[in-house]
User: What shape does this take?
Amino acid sequence: MFEFIKGAVEFVGPEYIVIENNGIGYQIATPNPFVYSGKLETMVTVYTYHYVREDVMALFGFQSREEKKLFTKLLNVSGIGPKGALAILASGEVQQVVNAIENEDEAFLVKFPGVGKKTARQMILDLKGKLQDVVPDYFPNLFNADTLPLHTQTNNTAFEEAILALKALGYSDKEIKKISPELRKEQMSTDQYIKQALKRLLK
Assistant: This one.
């Protein structure tokens, strides 16, 4: 229904962003909302997926058409809903996910929130050999944390926002507590905290 929405970033939260376009604020759930923290009040293009079920209607947004395409492929896997697909994309290590599927690495896939052995096996059955069309050159370059700008926010606030975002993705307090002490030592923006946290959670 909506291919993309172009507008100003009005709000960034742990679960979604709000894009204002012609006086309408669109609530859009994204894999890592804090990627947009440094873009408040600036124009962005968000590629959207309109999710409709009997009891829910929502917009999911992505930074590129390729990321959106991978999201839709994950949605087609039995046992993976929008929240689970977002959590997988939020890792930022799309190449790792693709490699895990192609190499039938269930041990890696079950590290994502909500992905058990049955769902991991289903991901492999449904997607192995079917991800080449999601622009091959795109995977290694997605979400290179080194290129993300540091945002002007306090270390404490950024860390707390990252924790909220991780909880929104489905990670438990126990899992988050394991990696928190090490992360607190670093001075990073919220989106970088999230990326680093996910790298540790997926080890």
The longest strand covers residues 43-53. The chain is about 40% helix and 20% strand.
